[in-house]
Amino acid sequence: MEEGPAEMTDTPETATGRRRHRVREEALADAMRIARRLLVEEGAAAVTVRAVAREMGLTAPGLYRYYAGHRELVQALVCDLYGELATTLAAARERQPSDEPDRRLREVARELRRWALAHPQEFTLLFAKPVADAGTAPEDAAHDSGWRFGSVLLDLMVQMWRRGGVRAPADLDPAWAAQLEEVREHLAGEPVPLEVIYVFVACWARLYGAVAVEVFGHLDFALTDPEPLFDHTVTDVLTTLGAPHPV
Fold this sequence. Notes:
single chain, mainly alpha, Tetracycline Repressor, domain 2, 2 domains, about 70% helix
C-alpha cells in the first residue's frame, strides 16, 4: 500500500510532537470535565488545583504543567462555560427568521433562562462571580469569551436599533458616557450613539435580573411559576428596543 503524504514526511520528532499535543489536549479536557463536576456538586470554592489534580491522579505540581495556578484554572472553566452558553444562544437565535431580530431576541432570552435554570451553579460562577478569579475584566483571559456570549444579544439589539424606535434618553451624564465607550468598541465600527448603548445595557440588566432572581430563588415567596413574569419582562425590553408589536 502506498504511503500518504503525512506518512511519507513524518519523522520521529513530528510523531512525538503530535502525541504530546494529543496528551495535553486530553488532559486539559479531563481537567475541565472534573472542574465542572466539582462546581456543580460542591460549588465554586471546591474548584481548586489540588482537587482537580487529585481526581486526575496527579499531584498539584503535576497539574501546573497545564495551569499556572488557581486563577488560570478557573479562567479556563469560565471560558468553556461562556463558549457553551454562546453556542447555545446562537442556536436559539437561528431558530427564528434572520429578518426578525425581535423574535430572535425573544428566543435568545428564553434560551438564556432555560440554560440558567438547568445549570444554576454554572450561571452563578459566570454572573455572580463567587470567586475573584472568575472575573472577565479586559486583563482577564475570559474577557473575550464573555464578549462572545454578550455579542449574541448585543448584535440583535443593534439590528433593532437600525430599524428605529429605540427609546433613548435625550442626554447622557458624561460619567456614564465614559463607562460605555468599551461597549461601543466591540461593535466593529457601528455608529451607535452612546445614549442607545445605555439603553442596551439597561435592557441587559433587566433580562439578567429577571433570570437571576428566579435562579437564586428570590421569587419563591410569591410565585410557583415565574415564567409569565419573565415573558412580560422580555416584552417590555422588546418595546424599549422598538419592536413593532411584541407579543
